Predict the structure.
Amino acid sequence: MKNIIIKTNLLLCLTILLLSLSCKKFVEIAPPTNQVTATQVFADSANANAAIMGIYNKLGQSYISYGSYTYLMGLYADELNTVTTNSSIKEFYFNSVSPNNNLMGAFWNSPYSFIYMANACLEGLKGNKNISDQAASSLMGEAYCIRGFMHFMLLNFYGQVPIITSTYFERNRLLPRSPTDSVYAQIIEDLKLAQSLLLGTNMPQGRASYYTATALLARVFLYKGNYPSAGEESSKIISSGKFSLMSNLNDVFLANSLETIWQLAQPYPGRETWEGYFLVPSSSTVVPTYIITDTLLNSFEQADKRKLAWVGFNSVNSMNYPYPFKYKKRLSSGPITEKFVVLRLAEQYLIRAEARANLNDIAGALDDINIIRDRAGLENANAVNKEEVLALIETERQHELFCESGHRWFDLKRTRRASTVLSGLKPDWKNTAILFPIYFSELASNPMLSQNEGY
Amino acid sequence: MRSFYTIIFIFVPLWSLCQTIRGTVNNKNHEPLAGISITVKGKQISTSTNEKGNFQIKVPGLQSVLVFTGTNVERMEIALAGRQSINIDLETKVSALDEVQVIAYGRNTARYNVGSITKVAAEDIAKQAVANPLAALQGMVPGLVVTPTNGMPGSSFKVQIRGQNTLSPNLNALAAIDNPLYIIDGVPFSPQNVNVNQFPSMISPGKGNYYNTPYAGISPFNSIDPANIESIEVLRDADATAIYGSKAGNGVILITTKKGSNGRTSFQLNMQEGISKMGKSMPMMNTQQYLQMRREAFANDGLTPNLTPGSLGYAPDLLLFDTTRYTDWRNRFLGNTAHNSNITGALSGGNNSTQFRIGAGFMRNGYIFPGGYAEKRLNFSVNLHHQSNDKKFTIDFSTLYAYSKNNCSSSESALTAFVLEPDYPELLDKNGNLVWEYKGVLLNGSSSTFNPIAYLKQKYHIENTAMNNNLVLGYQVLPNLSFKTSMGYSSFLANEYSAYPKAAQSPDYNTNTSARFGNNDLINWVVEPQLDYNLLKPKYRLDLLLGGTLQKNSNKRNEQNGYGYINDDLLGSVSGAARKDASDSYSEYKYIAFFGRANFIWGKKYILNINLRRDGSSRFGPNNRFGNFGSVGAGWIFTNEAFVKNQLGVLSYGKIRGSYGTTGSDAVADYQFLSRFAPTDYPYDGQIGYFPQNLYNPDFSWASTKKMELGLELGFLNDNLLLNAAWFRNRSGNQLVTFRLPYQTGFNNIIKNWDALVENRGIELSLNAKLLRSKDFSWDAAFNVSFPKNRLLKFPGIELSSYATAYVVGQSLSTQNKFRYASVNDSTGLFQFYGADGKLTYTPKNVSGGKLNDLSNIGNLDPKYFGGFQNSLRYKGFRLDLYFEGRKQMGLNYLAQVYSFVPGNRYNVPATFEDRWKKPGDHAGFIKTTTLYNNVAQNANQFFQQSSGVYGDASYIRLKTVSLSFEIPKNILDKFKVATIKLYATAFNVLTITGYRGNDPETQNFYGVPPLKTYTLGIQCEF
């Protein structure tokens, strides 16, 4: 026994001695088993491709950027009402969103985290000798497209925002908000770079392609009021021959629909789209959480097929509750049939119509509008002057793009019609509600950041 | 504490004129005591015992009186009464100063200690009848703040020694608490004081607006049965902690388990049975008050109540429910009585070479919610000590094992269930099934309120297996030199389960059942070889310690989820799920250290103690892994100086001590110096992607805390009154923080060292007194109080950092910048605030552009002072203990939580809301009610909740423990061959004196379970 103890102690003594000679070795640890380091990620094109796929994956999962902003913007405009008791959501209906509304945190944070991911990819890919030029330029094109798109989202929500083009946190953490013109310039630069890098590549619908960048550019130019460019970019899409309007309205939002320019899959198992998950009621006997307002419902023409195909009804206590029904599936049962449509052809027709109208091409504008009306089973519309056409376009956009990624709200905002339309409908409407508040903790975290008016 | 003596007389009936007396002095364990001095009373004759405890002394006559004195024994007089030979056994512990206390890698006594250490002994823990040892520390130790997170069984405690040293990472994320290091029997406790649960439950409802319990969770310390603990030592200053180097920046808590002792084998049994109830809380409105408030709210909004679901005026509570009905829902959900049982047994004994103790215990603590929830714990402990016949080899082995299971509801909404409309229909039908429909209205939450009893049907449980083992092998190489190796293994395996059954869901929805299964395994091992050298000379004493530490911690987590079960009965297994997914993570931490200590005591007067440590940690990048730490401590027992000794009067002991040193911190997550990407959980279009995990900064390194302390210790009246006063100043620099960043950088934090300096300083006083001592009656009292002060001393570049508006240089880290609340406006019924210009406003301006605008400093949440007061009274076999605890502080009041709902909606509110604004001219305490989320709601949510109006005094004095016990007299027990029987009754958390507005000033959560009032009856026997 004694000997054993002595030996054990001596052995341990020796071990310690040896270890202390190599104590630097002892405190070295293997990298975590469930993660990789940046060097491994950009070591070859297969891994670098996965870094880009990671962005789409997170985009598809981030319901804050998509699913919820569809219904939150619907509430904020005149499309939806809600029975929820969640005050963060209710604040949107009353256009009195507070800077500490936790949803506002995600509105700000989520785009910036995608911008970081895009920048990390761009920095990892630029001048990377392990990856072929062809693969690198296509991946970089996707990253630029996403970076531009995210800055555009921020611009629409907040107006002036910090422009982030690197991962260098020591500089980024103190960047102030840039004037909207600079933000627009950066967005256009990114999307044009994406266009040139992606030209000639053949991308699946789930990834950003040349057409994604082009369709986004068309929208950006429209919002900015650059009508010639907006018309030019939307024409590229319309005349590409790649996309066509689905004659059956029930097919528009199906996965791989011919009308879709860019779609996002929802990676989370058991779900199809966030829109379906949030907007389709869980059974036919409950009051839908988000109800289409009378304003929207009554604005449809009697013959409008969209009112039949894209609006659902639940009857509870002999009351009929309409709800958005573009996406039909709340949960998935079996293979995925619906994917979230970010960009589709119909919008491009309406963009071109508006561009043409603003350039006083009344006939051209009416042509584009009537293509959309025709698909909805409506007679051709007529107008004699620019103002009438623009009013027609507003209504057509309201019906074609209702409860879809906040189009209605952004249209009211960019055409400066929000106050006129909403002040009668919303008791607490204030003109400063045109921009959202920057989340309170971001203002505390960056002393160079200032709050929007009215908050 | 009064000791008692056992005196054995050996009478030798020899009448002799020879006046030399011989004898032996032993301690209670029959081991000889050396150096005990013996004097003849009234004469100048004296001698002392030799190494074998023997002495001989010449006396003038056999009627003389001998006086025995020594540093480790109390003065004792024995009349010879004719005897010539005297053998006595003395109990060694006499002065509290000489009680053995556990220190880092060793033991010493308070007398020769120069550091700042407080010992909490087994009996102080036992008297409080608590399940979690951390609960027993509350109010017992100066400088130690222990705060419960809620009153449910198994829930965690916030523990901090001498304040917060590090900056907070994020305004929204949880501020890291600087937790002390926990060591059980020489082994770092693997989970430390970190919540072991991964899933939410009603115990850990999270940071949400209205729960205000961000730190709540399942405490790992509930797996440690307090009955097995011999003592808990709290180490605070540099001298006491620097030998733990980088682990010790926030102080150290040492837990030592009970050991066997040689002598008769004895069996101790302790059984207790108790009940717990929630204390008095603020009453909610009754039906009449509630309905009136609702009608008023609709009127304020210009709405007419109707029965159209989805419309703004929809009000089933006014128009459909039976408005004559009233249910006190809080009583229904939180008003039950919880039952607690605890039984522990221990067998201990041994001989000179081997001693053992084997303990076992079973505990069950119920919940105050309906649903049969409980926490159960089964635990075992073994302690073995063996030494060879030549006393050169020793083996010590100790192990603690505990299995516990805690089941409750996985739904945190169960906590707020009681805000239900007071006229809401009955929740269950006659057969006990949930009611989902009332007069044609579905009670499923879609338009009317959800039937909240369903929350209680959501399942949660956690099963914890905790083990803490320590094996120490020792060998006495030379008489002065010993070598030992301590090997420890600590594991904590948490197995969690949470389920969402059909039974908890309204049948109106397509039910979607799911279950979660999670493991969180924390394991660490440590090997510490040590070389001890001691030199004992008449003039001085030298102790040297050299050692090393090798430690590895690992944490493995995994989680499985199952969805779409067809039957609730299958929810216990993942196999029956239609769809499954899984995830896991693993992290590893390695740590190496070399340490040394030199302790030198000269002439029982001068003490010098030096600690050194070199640490290496895997948490840093390759160039920053090693750091050096150390301390110097010194003490002067001036009462042992010849020139003081004769002038003392009532002063029996006096020491001045001081220490200075550096400890460190590597308290960041593992792998942070790498730029990491993780694979996505699910494929996108069939492909897995990567996404970044952190911002890249490989250059961070050790934070350091420089600690300084000065202390004065005084003993009066033969040490019956002991005063310990300390002044300390800790300064933490090179702050290693999860530095807050704005999200525009892509992440909200970065691990980074920052040249900010945080100071914690304060004064701590403790007083221990044996106030009365007689055969039948005794009264002991202890009092401690701490006055801490936390300050951010410097922060270069703060104005261009994320902390520009959060911290103020010169102020505490818990400084609150809030709107200054004024009053409710008499004519508009809205809250108004003082702007920075002093004018009243409804919409004060928040932080923007790095400016505070209308925010201003309203104080901080640090305790201003806190302390405890313990009294022990004994009369014959009866004993009464009264423990008080108190704190002076500012805190959140109930309005912070009540206003996260807007009063006027379909929620009940406290009856105090009767004092609301109703019509112009009212001078009210609360704003007008509304059913909308309009400017009124915003006035409350956005501004009032961020104002000084939700803060207030949260000071309290609490009678924490009252314990009355009765020991059955020995003469009765002898007949039954029982050594002792003690009957006792304990009341925990009985009385609170406070001006706090809300449930409880400690936990400060109105929608939660405050610490319960617990009444326990028990019996303790020893055979």
Q: What stands out?
A: Chain B has two domains: 6-94, 133-260+338-411+458-814+861-891+956-1022. Chain B touches chain A through 108 residues (CB under 8 Å). Confidence is low (pLDDT under 50) at residues 1-18 of chain B. The first helix of chain B runs from residue 122 to 126.
